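Standup notes
- DV: blocked on the single-chain target, sequence here:
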Amino acid sequence: MLVDADGTGPQDRLRQQLRTREEEGLYRRRLVLDGPQQARVRVAGHECLAFCSNDYLGLANHPGLIRAACEGARRHGVGAGASHLISGHFSVHHALEEALARFTGFPRALLFSTGYMANAGVIAGLMGRDGVVFGDRLNHASLNDAVLGARAQLVRYPHLDLAVLERRLAACRVKNRMVATDAVFSMDGDIAPAADLLALCERYDAWLLLDDAHGFGVLGSQGRGTVSHFGLHSPRILYMATLGKAAGVFGAFVAAQAEVIETLIQHARSYVYTTATPPLLSHVLLASLDLIETDAWRRERLAQLVACLKQEVRPIRWRLLPSDTPIQPLLIGDSARALALSRTLREHGLLVPAIRPPTVPQGSARLRISLSAAHEVEDVRRLGAVLRGLDGA
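- DV (later): unblocked, structure below
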């Protein structure tokens, strides 16, 4: 085996890197759930009240969707068997794309396996090496990685600082440009000023890519997302949303003008060169879309729970970041302290993840409290009571 001059080999270096990561409080370990995703889950044989899921509408274990999954498997089988461009594009995939386009108010929609792949496909398919992408400093890693993978130029601007963004757009001499942003920021829970961003894109001739992974199903009329929330209509908007969070299932889609979707079908490598998602999932998602549209009580419950949590934690020293979405980050600061609090909460039967760098900036470690329509007000009050006790400990 090859070794370095100091006698270490590649596995030794990996072990040292892992030890260092653990010493810095950045080591991540997976929870293993036994049973479905819901407000109460079983982890290592113990029931816990979970505040760590993106299942915002409580649909991941909905009995109607379970029935739809069984029916979808009977009708369409389990696997797609091929990519969409060979023989893996089923009628139910097509029906879901048409339903998503209607629901979000765009001419066309295109299914992707994940939000990560959707962002990669859009940016590589439309930008490439001759493009410039302007990204918010707190954008999700998938947007940043998509730009790097496309070998486009990435120009970042401070979080929500549109004055800086405008100066950088005005100074740009490259014709092919895009502003890419989280619509709801996944670790802060705040909402991008999409109307103002669109105005800048109109002024400086740029695409606007909105990653609405955490807004779809939650914001806007009947859960139609951030574009509906702001009442936006423009051929410049490229709308991406995921289907494994509020929709409760799996996958992602991009909605846009017909020419954009056709271009992605031809050039988005993360769409072209992968097996299509199981068609049964599209069957389930059609049922999920009906629930998103009709079950207004789920969004009403979320608003009630957000208000309750804010009241519950008001007396404690750690502060919630400003957010009116189901993402409620409790800022702790120190990574080790955030980890310790997360562990203690688990001892009380509460699952609340500690989010640390590099996911969030240095010094801004937090407890990311995620609320779901599956929670009850009493669940939130229980969490608040334990946090107040820990604050006084």
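- Follow-up: The CA atoms of residues 240 and 254 lie 4 Å apart.
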